[in-house]
């Protein structure tokens, strides 16, 4: 992750959705301040494999394709399917 992504020192707790009951740090864009993902700090066993990883919201990032030297929205890139289970 580059210096364009920041996170707050305070933990947030998920109150609904896939992160219900989880503690996490919110990742934000340094330029515009929008949330771009999270770092999961504490969770149940079903999300344990994501702890301490930088998890980005696919619709919030832009990708640079090295081979083609173009920039595209991440939503147009074929990522392996990984979902947060409820």
Question: Can you give keywords for this protein?
Answer:
mainly beta; globular
Short characterization:
The protein has 86 residues and is an all-beta fold. It has no helices and seven strands.
Order of helices and strands: EEEEEEE
Mean pLDDT: 80
| Number of distinct beta strands | 7
Structural class: mainly beta
Supply the number of helical segments.
0
Range of strand content: 35-45%
Which geometry do the CA atoms define? globular
Give the biggest sheet.
Answer: 5 strands, antiparallel
Unreliable sequence segments? none
Descriptive report:
The structure is a single chain. The chain is built from no helices and 7 strands. The chain is mainly β and 86 residues long. The strands form 2 sheets. Strands 1, 2, 3, 4 and 5 form a 5-stranded antiparallel β-sheet that branches. A two-stranded antiparallel sheet has the order 6-7. The mean pLDDT is 80. It has one domain. A hairpin with a 4-residue loop joins strand 6 and strand 7. It starts with a strand and ends in a 13-residue tail after the last strand.
